[in-house]
């Protein structure tokens, strides 16, 4: 298991507010450089799994190893240079320019009294270029469309330069062109050796870029494995509770339903 | 190429410099404006010939001006801190029971401890911090909602408790001697400031505002959602607490000698963000400078417009609320959280 970067061992988690056990003794490992899709119906605990890996919420039992160390043995700032998060949505209360906003991704690279310098500006401008928003860098971030905002959140995480990138429903607001752009960005990150995990409720999105899938169903019914193994008519029909068919088309998997 | 321009542009340093010059000019003018030897601007040359003018400027006006400077800097700086860490452009240092706590402390001292200035200030500062501590404690014990919501709710409750307390004090106060003093304190003012008051509050305000100033870029990150700030390598709880303690300490210190001065902490950060954009690298120093200009301007009016002193809080409320209404009508103020 030497090449696994994230290792969950018997992780359980229950929301104390409603006693809803989302995860029961889940064990899995994610290899460095993999793109993993966390797939499943709404409200099944996909985001919870991301937040557990991030360390934002703590498992009731079990352990999470990131790289060589237990997750809890990292300093906060050190972890910020390893794991980045692209939230599904974000409240933005103040009118930052896109560039100022993306610059906030440099936070884990700066100590408490430091302000961003030239190197940080360069990282932020490069990140905006990668998502195709460099022309809007002076625009207030509060005036963006839903899709543009989602790309800005991605850009901020790119500026953060993490080794592991967690994305929560990154495609949910994107139109087709931006979806393809984001897929290209994620693929190029993968080639740079970044490990990516993202949640989605659309099997096709998962099929198009991931090589590993964690499929979450109700009652802690979680299966995971390579995309080819997991993305089958049988498993999807079972998890979503509807009749769907997975077909091969031009080497890609497509999902058909009636 | 827009990129090149963006990388090269130092964030608004020129405008900050101009603002500093304006503050300096306002300060000097205010130092020589008044009613001695005649109404209006004093000729600085008489300082060397008239010992009374020397005494007036250096023993009365200068400490008062310096105090109104740090009052404005602290209230506006703390206001910016509160608005950023609560991601809410409508909060100010008076939140979380700080102002009402101070008011209660002052009224309490006036009625029960005799009206020595030192006791009133100490009691006001003590209850201001108690107000924060109490709000913080309740917020930690609330079992629902996000951290910001819990703090604001408990702040409202604690403020209401203290203002009920102030009501009881006013009811119980001697209407001839104590009630006017309480009322005057609640309206805020700097007429009683001497070098002693100035040097009492100087260390706390300098330390806390320096901490806030040096860490100002972090405020941007703290205005994001908690999980995002966390993912960016920050422990939002700890970082917020550092800012919260600094801002509250400065606020408690200044209002302990000035009484309640409203609106500075709310309106000045708004204007700063409007003129210097939201990034706290510029907007925080801008708010501090504008706060200084605003309180010096209002305090100078308070002591010169009429022969008798008008409470400072009346002017800050008048101008602050006026500007606020203009801002409200001009453009939407974003409230998302």
Shape of chain B: globular
SS elements, strand count of chain A = 12
Across the major sheet of chain A, the strand order is 6-7-8-3-9-10
Element-level helix/strand string of chain B: HHEEHHHHHHHHHHHH
Low-confidence stretches of chain B are 1-10
- From the helix content, strand content and strand pairing of chain B, which structural class follows? mainly alpha
Number of helices of chain A: 9
In terms of structural class, how would the helical and strand content of chain A be classed?
alpha/beta
Radius of gyration of chain A (CA) equals: 18 Å
CATH hierarchy: architecture of the largest domain in chain A: 3-Layer(aba) Sandwich
Question: In brief, what are we looking at here?
Answer:
Chain A is an alpha/beta fold.
Structural summary, described in words:
By secondary structure, chain A is of the alpha/beta class. Chain A folds into 2 domains: 4-82 and 162-257, P-loop containing nucleotide triphosphate hydrolases (Rossmann fold); 92-161, no CATH class. Chain A is built from 9 helices and 12 strands. In chain A, helix 4 packs across helix 5. Chain A is globular. With 337 residues, chain B is an all-alpha fold. Chain B has a single domain (34-330), classed as ABC transporter involved in vitamin B12 uptake, BtuC. Chain B has helices spanning 2-8, 13-32, 51-85, 98-112, 117-141, 147-172, 178-187, 195-214, 216-222, 226-231, 236-258, 264-276, 280-304, 312-330, and strands spanning 33-34, 40-41. Chain B has a two-stranded antiparallel sheet with strand order 1-2. In chain B, a hairpin with a 5-residue loop joins strand 1 (33-34) and strand 2 (40-41). In chain B, helix 4 runs antiparallel to helix 7 and helix 12 (264-276) crosses helix 13. The chains are: A alpha/beta (258), B mainly alpha (337). The interface between A and B is large, with 46 and 37 residues.
